Amino acid sequence: MSVRLFEGRDHAAAYLQYRVTPDELISTVMSYMKNKEPNQCNLAVDVGCGSGQGTVLLAPYFTKIVGTDVSPAQLEMALTNENPPNVSYRECPAEKLPFASGEVDLVMAVTAAHWFDREKFLLEADRVLRPGGCLALLSYSMNIELEYGDVSNTTLNDISGNDAFYFSE
């Protein structure tokens, strides 16, 4: 189960003010996706979206973007942003995404994946990603172990043919 922090209204407001905005991550991921499969930008999911700063940055590139978070207060704060019409938000844990298998083109988590149950999240991301989809994670540290089962972080890109990015600031 996801770690449930950052859920109060006061903390959500501070989070909106101080959370990193991942412009460089979005630019790098979109460049990669457009070079690999230029017409596959239908659905992006920003997992652990918090107050939505990264979610809205995907709007120019995808037909539909859904930010997910376990915190109603964070999602309420995200709704106070100026959201483009193709952006929406859903309350759910990272390990149980409300999407069909193979439906998602991009699963992104910005400074949130370290709170997830890694094994369950990676299996869930693999389930919802279409073949050739992209998993992009941004973290503050390289201390996140991105492995599950017998798959190490060096072979994460090979999981079911999906691609993964791991960025650290």
UniProtKB/TrEMBL annotation:
Domain of life from the UniProt record: Eukaryota
InterPro entries (UniProt xref): Diverse_substrate_MTase, Methyltransf_11, SAM-dependent_MTases_sf
Any one GO MF annotation of this record: S-adenosylmethionine-dependent methyltransferase activity
The Methyltransferase type domain, residue ranges: 45-136
Pfam families named in the record: Methyltransf_11
Protein name: Si:ch211-93g23.2
Species this chain originates from: Cyclopterus lumpus
